[in-house]
Amino acid sequence: MTLPDTMRAMVTMGHGGLEQMVLHADWPRPEPVAGEVLVRVRACGLNNTDVNTRSGWYSKTVTDATTGGAFEEVGEDDPTWGGAPITFPRIQGADVCGEIVGVGAGVDPARIGARIITDNWLRDPDDPTDKNKTGYFGSERDGGFAEYTTMPSVNAITIRSELSDAELATFSCSYSTAEGMLTRANVTAKDTVLVPGASGGVGGALVQLAKRRGARVIALASEAKHSDVTSLGADRVLARAPDDLRAALGEDRITVVADVVGGPYWPTLIDILERGGRYTCSGAIAGPMVDLDLRTFYLRDLTFTGSTVIDPEVTNNLVRYIEAGDVKPALAATYPLDQLREAQAAFIAKKHTGNIVVTP
């Protein structure tokens, strides 16, 4: 197979606004080194990590909600998910669905032609469970907003599915994030789970995956998106931020809050947790700074878990769910690569219900 020496790529040039993403028509095509594969990208999902890394929102100097725009001040030492700088220019995009078209030394050539999705976490092969030794695809190394990308062979997971490339590109980040949260919170069929922001990519995945575990699911979403969230399996869908959440819940008693929203409404979510309840979090799109009454925390015997770096088996389980048809994609829209800025603008504005995918 003859491959081009260059490729189209949307390259992030530094922290800042949407203008930092620049389309290049002749970016050098990467070559796989030992242990790696070369993937022709068929589709790549868009996620909060892409937006927040580009804008520098992860820096503790930023206290505002996610806006997707440039911030007045971004710390130089902690502007990414891992609290460390990254190298620019950088090709972002973690959620690749594609085809292996080349392999580096030590990788079985039989992998060429395999259809794959990504395990986004770049782990130390000698110590894969050490969370301090992890990176993220599209952050600590170039990702999938391009025609080709390379990755460790272990991160390219073969998948057998009749779903389209764009549909498969919705799973790697949103669904693994959701499954990681539910795993940390040990959600079972005995639980009633409250999902704020249920119309988003992670929120919709939380609804499906919590239902898969047998839990009862109460979702919060804007009224215009209630039918979409109901179709994902939610038992009830309430307003995005009811004035009296306890009254709106009625007889439902919440044992788990699975949250990626945060912001001013956060204390309300904590107040309605049952004694011994669990709060699990993997985002704060409405704002990272919240008020906590520690008396609520300890007198009600609550457990808080943060969830970012997930264990390898979480992604492996997710692939099994996809292949078995246990979860369905929540594909909201596709955009061509040269419209990645417009895609991010729509994502930030929450224009769509579900996941946005970019196709080269």
From TrEMBL:
Keywords: NADP, Oxidoreductase. Residues 16-358 form the Enoyl reductase (ER) domain. The keyword NADP applies. SMART domains: PKS_ER (SM00829). The keyword Oxidoreductase applies. InterPro entries: ADH-like_C, ADH-like_N, ER, GroES-like_sf, NAD(P)-bd_dom_sf. This is Alcohol dehydrogenase family protein. It comes from Roseovarius pelagicus.
